[in-house]
Amino acid sequence: MTDKLPFCLPADITPEIFLKEYWQKKPLLIKNGLPALVGMFEPTDVLDLAIEDGVSARLIAQKDDNPNQWTLKNSPLTEQDLQDTPRLWTVLVQNLEQWSPELGELWQAFDFIPKWQQDDIMVSVAGAGGSVGEHYDEYDVFLAQGYGSRRWTLGKICDSDTPFIEGQPIRLLDDMGQIIFDEILEAGDVLYVPPRLSHYGVAQDDCLTFSFGFRRPNMVQILDEVADVATGEHALFSPLILPQTLQDNAYELTNESISAIKNELINLLNSDKGNAILTQALSELVSKRQYDLVAFDDELAPDELAERLQNGECLMINPACRFVRQNDDWYINGECVCFNDNELALIDRFTDNDVITFDDLSCDLDDELLASCADWLNDKWLILI
After folding, report:
1. Phi, psi of 324 (to 5 degrees)
2. Residue 318 near residue 101, CB atoms below 8 Å
């Protein structure tokens, strides 16, 4: 088993205290909260990755002749794009854990938050003065400094009525209100920012800032997923049986009829069938990936996998995959997956940050489990390291 990282929290704040007093309420500075991140990447590593095929990246810059005017270019980015940047620029790369399993393992430091709420790890690389402007996000984020330093200021809580500056390609605030935080984060430091809290980060030198994001589905996504799952219930296709009183106007859809239909929907959701539909819908929804998985190797047969393990490689869970457990069911990348008892025990090992070595292969794995491991590897649930 790999060593588990300590939680990314100050020594005097337990996970219980954080969840009660800070989570989605107020910011928290965690000095040297993620030391394992320091030295993992340099700016050139991220810039080289940003121009690779299949990478989701953005180049945000301020014009040299008018720094108040911003520009945005989405991937694919080219080497020429990065050479022609104005003085103030930032490159953002999404889903970095897919390209660096080592980085993905750092999710463990935030396991006091349920994994189904994990979004992705985004990295911001910038030269001195670079930023993405004053803004707010709709999700929770831990901003971890991995290289160089960045000055962060935090201001007011925003809402859906908070105005943005018009005529810009990105969402920018023209007023952050009263500043409640103004600190420079050094490599290893982490700043937790709750949803809708305005913030502004400016690179003090060449720097890398990693955003560990957490978000919940919105109501439109939930309703859409519930409707999708409900289509598998044939009984729900039967027209409703509703009471009807005499109406003055035959053209009118009355409030009483709407209330009756609403009650039927509520009764369904409160029933065993409705609970099963909602459970399946939510489990599928929160286990879906935002980005497609990238395959780095050709598919392996079980004997080829055994040879790779014998040569010193190990199997571990793919940090870019989404594993969600709901009671006795596992949902992986949006689908419910059935396992036998031996497979379940092995999945439990993987999700407990265990790795499978050749010694495990010879002691614990039979041919059937080896074949399962090969299938999971080819499905990109696992990776070889």
Report:
1. -130, 130
2. yes
Task: Report the predicted TM-score, pTM, of the whole model to 2 decimal places.
Answer: 0.92
Q: Hey, what domains does the chain have and what are their CATH numbers?
A: 15-214 (2.60.120.650), 219-286 (no CATH), 302-384 (3.40.366.30)
Cα–Cα distance for residue pair 278/77, rounded to 1 Å: 41
Task: Enumerate residue ranges in the chain where pLDDT < 70.
Answer: 1-3, 295-296, 361-365
- Written as six digits, the tokens of 30 are 């965690």
Query: Residue 12 is encoded by which pair of tokens?
Result: 């005097």
| Contact yes or no for 315/373 (Cβ under 8 A) | yes
9: its two tokens: 């929290």
Element (H, E) at 147: strand 140-147
Residue 177, by phi and psi: left (phi above 0), alpha (psi -120 to 50) or beta? left
Angle at 293 between CA 60 and CA 75, to 5 degrees: 20
Q: Report CA dihedral (201, 204, 206, 211) to the nearest 10 degrees.
A: -20
Closest Cα to residue 58, out of 127, 124, 144?
A: 124
48-74 pLDDT, tens digit per residue, is 999 999 899 999 999 999 999 999 999
Give which of 96, 121, 120, 105 is closest to 3, Cα–Cα: 105
From 224, 34, 256, select the one nearest 144 (Cα to Cα): 34
Cis peptide before 86 (omega within 30 of 0): no
Q: Contact, 285 vs 221, CB < 8 A? A: yes
Sign of CA dihedral 250, 253, 259, 260: positive
